[in-house]
Amino acid sequence: MAAKTSTRRQFLEDSLLASAAAALAAAGLPEAAARAAAPPPPKRRTIGPNDKIQMACIGVKGRGMSHVNGYLDLPDATVVAICDVDLNQTGRAVSAVEGKTGKKPKVYQDLRAVFDDPEVDAVSLALPVHWHALASIWAMQAGKDVYVEKPVSHNVSEGRKAAEAARKYGRICQAGTQSRSSKAVQDAIAYIHGGKIGKVTLARGLCYKPRGSIGVFPDEPRPMGVNYDLWLGPAPQRPFNKNRFHYNWHWMWDYGTGDVGNQGIHQMDIARWALNKHTLPERVLSMGGRFGYADQGETPNTLLSFYDYGDAQLLFEVRGLKTDGLKGVKIGDVVYGTDGYVAFGDNYSAAGAFDNDGKKVATFSGGGNHFGNFIQAVRSRKPTDLNAPVEEGHLSSALCHLGNVSYRLGQPVPFADKAKHVSSSGVGNLQTVTEAYARFESHLAENGVALGGATYRLGRALRLDVKSETFGRDKEANALLSRAYRHPFVVPDRV
C-alpha cells in the first residue's frame, strides 16, 4: 500500500527535505541529515490560559450542526472556521457562529486548507465514515487536536492507524461515542465492574431502529456547490447519485458500515465497555440480510453478530423493520450477570439494574458533556482526561467492522435448510445463539418475509489473531481489514 501524500505543498516540502538530507549525508553529516529529513514542526498558535480553544467544524449537515452549537455553548471554546465539501450546507453554520460570537467564521471547502490554518487549534469531524480516519490522521500530522465522530474508521486497519497517530504526534483525539461522558452510564458500568450483578457472561447490543427503503435513483450530474471528487476522497471513483450522497451513503459499503456502525456503534461501545474487554474477540460470526424491500442499499437492515471472547460473549442485533423491544429496550444494551442484569436505553442519562426476577434494584441517572470533556483534555494535554480516547473508539469500531467482514464473506442459505443452522458454527454459547436465531426468524415472519422461499446470508466463522488484529492466514478476510485507497487520499501503512 502506498504511503500518503496529503497535499501538494507537503509533497514539495518532503522532496526538498529529502534532497537536503541526501546532500548532508553525502558530506558525512548523518546527524544533520536525520534532522533535515524530519518534517518541520507544524505552525501552532500559542494558547494562553484565558484564551478560548479555536475550533474548526468540518462537515456541518445534520450531526455537524450539533458540533457547531456544542462548542459555541462552551465558555472556553469557539468556532473560527466552517468546512464542508457541499457549500450549500455552510450557511446555517455561519449564521449560528455569527449570531453567538458576532464574528463570521472562515469558510472552507477543502479540509486540507483547514489543517494548514495556524489559527485553528483543533478540528471536529462530522464526515462520512470513509473519511473519518484519514481526516483524523492528516489533522494530527498538521498539529491539530481532533474530535472525530463514530465510528472512528471505515475498516479495522485504519482505526489502528488513527490511534497510532495520536500517540506519535502527541495529539488529543476523542471518539464521538458520547455515552462515555454520561454519569448514568459511567455509574452503571462501575456497578457491573464492581461485581454487583455477579460474573458477567453476556452483553447484548440492540439497534432496533426503523429504516425504510431508500428507493432507486439514477446517476446524475453533481449539484452546484459540491466538490464531489473531494467528497469521494479515499473511496473509488463513482458517478454522482443522491443515494450515494447525503445520509444514504450509510447503506453503501464504499462509504458506510450499515446501522451496526451508524447508530449501533454507541451500543457496541457500551457492550464492550461492560464486558471490560480491551482487545478484539477471539471469534466472530454474522448472519442477516436486507429484507422487506428492494432498493439501492447494500448493507443489511437485519443483522446478528456473535463475538466470542472465551469467557464472555457479545451479541449484537440490528433490526431495521418494525419490532418489539427486548426487556423494554429497543436501542440500547442488556448486560447479563449470574445475579441479575443491567439495561441501558437510548437515553444515555438513565440506566437500571435488575435481579434475575426482573425487579429493579438500582437506578442510575445523570448526563454529561462530551464536547466539554474534549476541550478539557485539549487544555490539560492529557489523553487520560478523555472519556473516549481514539484507542477505545478503534476497538469498538473494529467490532462493527469484524461483524461486517463475516457477513460479506458469507453465502446465501435457505431458512428451511436447518442443516446449515447458525448454531453449527461453534461461535458463542449454543443456547444464546439458538435463542437469538429463533427471534431473528420470528421477527422477519412478523414483517411479512416469506421464510419458506427466502434465504439469509450466513457469514463466515472467523478466528482472530488478537495481537496482530488480523485473521491469521485467511487472505480473503484479511483483505477486508483495509481497502484500496484512491490517490492521493491514502491512509498510510505507517503514520
The gist of it:
The protein is an alpha/beta fold.
**From the alpha-carbon coordinates, what is the Rg to the nearest angstrom?**
23 Å
The H-level CATH homologous superfamily of the largest domain, spelled out, is Dihydrodipicolinate Reductase, domain 2
Shape: globular
Could you tell me the strand content as a percent range? 15-25%
Number of helices: 14
Largest sheet: 11 strands, mixed
Q: Share of helix among residues? A: 25-40%
CATH class category name of the largest domain: Alpha Beta
β-strand number: 17
Please identify, by name, the CATH architecture of the largest domain. Answer: 2-Layer Sandwich
Low-pLDDT parts are 1-9, 11-38
The rounded distance between the terminal residues' Cα atoms is: 13 Å
* Total individual domains: 3
What structural class results from the helix and strand content? alpha/beta
Mean pLDDT: 91
Any idea of the CATH topology of the largest domain?
Dihydrodipicolinate Reductase, domain 2
